């Protein structure tokens, strides 16, 4: 069935497939995506795939769409391994374990009416616009060719226990002091993976919203938005927990709250994990995106490691991970990437590193993390603008006399000297300018934010 280019490109995006179920995304559409993906993996000389592993989240539409995807794959002669309910990093694990391409049905933190597909090659290597999604979109537009050979077979395999054991082999928590851990799963897949991973460990888990419910009845499963951390912050204070963890809908991102209920910066988590990884492999390369605090590359350099700065976005991080052999990579959005996890991101693995660091010593988390918070930061501030390029140039002009340097790796990053800098970058999908500011003190950050926004929003 041929479809319009506009309708297809609205769903098959740069990094994944995502849309409103019943309007943009249905079983027939998914079946065509699956058929094209199967052909691509079967005919790829580096892959020559014979099977594809498929997992899905807790959304009401996910089982049906995953089944349609399996039909599309088997119709092309490839086998399918269904792992059922899974977090995205659990699907990446299965792709690495089984050495085959994978498909994860999730719309992450998007509202309940959405669903989507994250695709990867064998070993959890990402599939993006230039590495397969562009071809798939063209196939879906023009019609996916049929396959004359026999159909593949579908089997089921439970990998949750293997996933938990694998992570336990990467970060040993068996010898730490007992910790009380408040966890907000947001009715997402953390409610599935946390009991399996944490159950055998010296952890007392205080669960919040572990019931799998794709309607997200309590709050959005998006901890990047501060309002979605409020329940966890209150839960930490009420239970006297040592630490709070919040997972997004597909549990590939993890946010940390200290024992006082204060959010821990993902940059601080990146620095902590980088230090732990460099202790195991001195001189290793650490990836960080350009929004991450300057504290990260400074610490990596001080410890004898090699920091590498990248654009924002998982495809750029994963590409740099592969090209440099980096042991670890972190983003300001709480995506954390590990060479030992096939270069893929795992919020659970990052959480385990923080738990290990906390449990191996006696200080509270707020004191442990204080050493990694050497700068103040604004967080990401979005502004709706008619012309992002024009507003950006106006800001550059306003700061021209105070600018030490400017680079355009991703938007514009303006270094003002003495530890102060800001980045302005346009959204790829919305009429937004995104601002991030960092400086020595909170007062400096606030002053810079006010000054920049007065130009951006003029």
Automatic annotation (TrEMBL):
InterPro entries: A-D-PHexomutase_a/b/a-I, A-D-PHexomutase_a/b/a-I/II/III, A-D-PHexomutase_a/b/a-II, A-D-PHexomutase_a/b/a-III, A-D-PHexomutase_C, A-D-PHexomutase_C_sf, Alpha-D-phosphohexomutase_SF. The keyword Metal-binding applies. Residues 12-131, 177-261, 268-375 form the Alpha-D-phosphohexomutase alpha/beta/alpha domain. Keywords: Isomerase, Magnesium, Metal-binding, Phosphoprotein. Its cofactor is Mg(2+). Pfam families: PGM_PMM_I (PF02878), PGM_PMM_II (PF02879), PGM_PMM_III (PF02880), PGM_PMM_IV (PF00408). It comes from the Bacteria. Residues 380-453 form the Alpha-D-phosphohexomutase C-terminal domain. Belongs to the phosphohexose mutase family. This is Phosphomannomutase/phosphoglucomutase. It comes from Rhodococcus gannanensis.
